[in-house]
Sequence to fold (269 residues):
Amino acid sequence: MRIALFVEGSPPAGSKTDHCKALWNVTLLPALGCRPADIIVPFGKDAIARMCGLRTSTSAPGLDTKIAATRKEHQLDPERDAIVVAWDIEPIDPGQRRCAWDEKRDIYRGIASSPLLQDTAWARDAAARHALLQSRKDQPPTGQSHAKLRPGAVLGLCMEPMFEALLARDGRAIRRALGLASDPPDWPTGWGTFERDPSKRLLARAIDSMRRLRPRPEVRRTIRENWQNAKDEWGDYLLRKLLADPVQSTAIREHPISARLRHIMPAIQ
Fold:
């Protein structure tokens, strides 16, 4: 069984290194004891909206289109191979309700009803998962899903509030990872588990704060772009630094996103 991981992230843009693939297959999944995915396909949030027939701000293809194209490019067999879709529940306008259960139902419904995926095991599996969620009558489950990957399966992983929650628990640890001895001017506050958008409000501001320092910190020789233009590269760098710290490593491995990944993905043999 091959595994195709469709994950909210950025495709390589002029870089020799696919940092999205490195983040997941080289750094995170092995650290969790999980087998790396055979194929990693980054996508933007608009891909889900377009698949579900919602208004989008870009002309990006829908997630079902990406799945169909990946199937063709890599000769995936829907009967034998499996799909995981991992996406962030945030960002969204403050005050608006977000529900991982609703979004998971939408994704399963979109894959099940896509004419590009009709008559495949993936579509049938997504339809069955959508029907199961619908049968709960607006009562989201309170525990962790027990579904695991098997040939022909489609599983969704809603990363709450977003992937960057794995990184943004401790501002002092991020500061150390950047090689800084003290907080630079305009260093963000509010580090922890309750920030809805740790990417924009914490990590982007921290990187901007570091980039304004003179002389330039050594880390800028490694990554020249700001957070917004190199999220996966920064994410991989920070994740590797945090995993090398026993306290931070334990927190990352115990995070609900990590726990769900360990449950879904096969273990390293």
